[in-house]
């Protein structure tokens, strides 16, 4: 209950600060079961929308479009909650989703424009987070998940964008999403994770716990991909493809039975993997005109295996 009150206070504080520069303001508060909230703001400049739902089987849909700086906040506490947020056009938008409970799902989309910020925070179990930023520059997307069996996915296009995922708990996954069951409508490719296409993009995954899996895929040039995992049975996979140039991929794993796989295409790329523990495996492959590329593997412990291929 305390976390719910803190989340509510946070959203209200953000809403109050946004009102002074807002053309339109819309707020919904629902308490109970099987609630539905739908908010649409079109052609405004600096509009704000907020939805707070407490109970079970809640659904919130929010759409903001037009020029100017829009802010949208959704808070849900309970079980089997769904939140969908779409922001179109303009620039410098802010989107925030907070979900606490079990079986929560959040989908957030920001289309075109620059300097957008998107944040999804989920606490509980069986949480799903999907965020897309389609085009633009200087955008940032973050997902924080605390609990068990969490799944986070992010997709960005453009340049100079940043993506961050932090997961704490057990059986966490970045990627390996399956388009089946009740979540078909999430319009996400199977096996997704962090996906970036463009130039000068940064992707970061941090996982603490056991049974963690992280997948990163970048297409283009001058990217940075990082995975940090602490625990047991961790798996990190990084792929940098296309006409890749000057990309950097790094994986740090601390624990037991860890597996790191890095694949890069192009030239002038750098791949580094550091593992501390036992039963660790590193596989590094730099393909296609792998000129001026560097691969480094550091393993501390016992029963470790490292494989490197440059071709």
From TrEMBL:
InterPro entries from the UniProt entry: Curlin_rpt
Keywords: Signal
UniProt keyword Signal present: yes
Signal peptide: 1-20
Family, similarity comment: Belongs to the CsgA/CsgB family.
Record-given protein name: Curlin associated repeat-containing protein
Organism this protein belongs to: Azospirillum rugosum
